[in-house]
Amino acid sequence: DPILKIAQILARDTRQPLLTILQRQSSAVFHTLNRAQRQAASQGLFKVAQPLRSNQTYVLIDDVFTTGATLSAARSALLAAGACDIRALVVARQPYKQ
Questions:
Q1: Which of 28, 39, 42, 97 could form a disulfide with 73 if both were Cys (CB 3.0 to 4.6 A apart)?
Q2: SS (H, E, C) the chain
């Protein structure tokens, strides 16, 4: 998985732990969906797999940002689990075409 490799390099270079704490709850394929469908399909997309520390900064890493639905769903799951400081890194930006 290329994103996992990028995350491992970032964790190593920043001397921060790599936590794979989000579990995807659906195998929905988003590239065929329009914006509204992506938003709907992303609701409850992730579950947090372990307890979080409230004083920790969590960094989400995504391969392609199109509408932001996946990052939004991941952020929502982390917030619901008690995270306070959430950042995001995206490898590529795909312009959304309706």
A1: 42
A2: CHHHHHHHHHHHHHCCCCCCCEEECCCCCCCCCCHHHHHHHHCCCEEECCCCCCCCEEEEEEEEECCCHHHHHHHHHHHHCCCCEEEEEEEEECCCCC
Give the whole-angstrom CA distance, residue 63 versus residue 90: 6
C-alpha 39/C-alpha 35 separation (Å) is 6
Structure tokens at 65: 């940002």
CA 52 – CA 29 distance, rounded (Å): 28
Residues in the chain: 98
Phi then psi dihedrals of residue 96, to 5 deg: -80, 130
Residue 98 pLDDT: 61
**Distance separating alpha carbons of residues 91 and 37, to the nearest angstrom:** 23
pLDDT-based confidence at residue 54 (cuts at 50, 70, 90):
confident
Q: Which amino acid is located at 10 in the chain? A: L
